[in-house]
Each structure stands twice: as structure tokens, then as C-alpha cells.
UniProtKB/TrEMBL annotation:
Primary site of residence: membrane
Example GO biological process: filopodium assembly
Residue ranges constituting the Immunoglobulin domain according to the UniProt record: 39-138
SUPFAM superfamilies tied to this protein: Immunoglobulin
Protein name, per record: V-set and transmembrane domain containing 5
UniProt keyword annotation of Signal present: yes
Length: 198
């Protein structure tokens, strides 16, 4: 019995020491990536600039990669290593701005930009984390209404100008006829006077 209890104590001591060593090794090894996505769902309108905002932290140097997944397929947007290089795909060359915290800004979004945006942050020691943002893009319907309103106002202004012009023409014609009638009346009086004198 005594020898069995001694083995158990030694096993518990060895297990505890092993656990402490493993915990110490894990704390010494740099690693671990955390990622925060404050706004996982974004609504935007066509031609708007939007910010896909994230915040990551890690102990080593991280590689950040963004991909867009939609009904048109999967597209790699950008990949960069903090402080080293930025590799933007040709489809997004003039439309993407990257930030140190892992966020990207998309300029002039269109309907094809709607979908899922996946970010992968990979630390140099191999650990990684993922995040997703859903982007909904809507067309601006009031643009068509705006065009109709502008056209209606333009036509109303043209109509008002034409009505004023017609009124002026009518007034001028009335004054001209009145003057002509007076001239005719005065000529008739002169003719009558001449006939009487004769």
C-alpha cells in the first residue's frame, strides 16, 4: 500500500511540473491573434465610399488578406504584411485604401460590390483568425424621380415664358389695332371734311 501511494504522489508531482512547464512554454512563445469586427453588416448606396472597419492585434508581424464573395464569384481584393508590402488586385487598384489596423475603404461602390467580405489575419508563427462583413448595396431610386421633377419644372418654366410671350403679343396686337382704328377714323373724318368743302 505504501508503495502505491508513493507512486501516485510522484505521478501527481510530475503531472503538475509538466503542466507548469507547458504553460510557461505557451506564454513564452509569441502567438495569438485577436480580431474585432465592430460593424458586421453595412448598408450602402451606389457610388458611396464605405469603410470595412476591423481592429486586429498580435504579438508578431501579421499578414492581412481581404476577399470578396458574391454570386459573381470569389475575388481576392488585397493582401499586405504590416510594414512591408501591399498587393492590391487589378480589379480594385484605384478603389481600395488600406489601414494599419486591418480596415479597408472601398471607393465608389456598385451593385457588384454587394456580398460577403472575409478578412484573414495570419501571424508569422502560423496562428490566424477570420472575420466577415456583409455589404448590402442599394440603387438610388430617387435619382429617377429627381430627373422627372427637374424635367417637370423645366417644362413649367418654358410654358410660363410662352404664356407671357403670347400675352405680350396679344396686348401689342390690341394696341396696334386700336391705333389703326383711330387712324382710319381720323382719315375718314378728313375725307368727309374735304368732300364738304368741295
Amino acid at each position: 500500500m505504501r508503495s502505491l501511494r508513493g507512486c501516485r504522489r510522484r505521478g501527481a508531482i510530475v503531472g503538475t511540473v509538466t503542466l507548469c512547464l507547458a504553460a510557461g512554454w505557451a506564454l513564452q512563445t509569441p502567438g495569438g491573434v485577436s480580431l474585432i469586427v465592430p460593424q458586421p453588416n453595412i448598408n450602402a448606396t451606389v457610388a458611396q465610399n464605405i469603410l470595412l472597419s476591423v481592429e486586429y492585434s498580435c504579438r508578431g508581424i501579421a499578414t492581412v488578406e481581404w476577399k470578396h464573395v458574391s454570386s459573381w464569384g470569389t475575388t481576392k481584393i488585397v493582401e499586405w504584411k504590416s510594414g512591408n508590402y501591399i498587393n492590391i488586385s487589378s480589379a480594385y487598384k484605384d478603389r481600395v485604401t488600406t489601414f494599419e489596423n486591418g480596415s479597408i475603404q472601398l471607393l465608389n461602390v456598385g451593385m457588384r460590390d454587394a456580398g460577403y467580405y472575409f478578412i484573414t489575419v495570419t501571424e508569422e508563427y502560423g496562428t490566424n483568425t477570420y472575420g466577415t462583413i456583409i455589404l448590402n448595396v442599394y440603387e438610388i431610386i430617387y435619382e429617377d424621380l429627381h430627373f422627372v421633377v427637374v424635367l417637370f419644372v423645366f417644362l413649367a418654366a418654358v410654358s410660363a415664358i410662352l404664356i407671357c410671350f403670347m400675352w405680350l403679343c396679344n396686348k401689342s396686337l390690341y394696341l396696334f389695332q386700336k391705333k389703326t382704328h383711330k387712324l382710319t377714323a381720323s382719315t375718314t373724318e378728313e375725307i368727309e371734311l374735304e368732300t364738304i368743302e368741295c
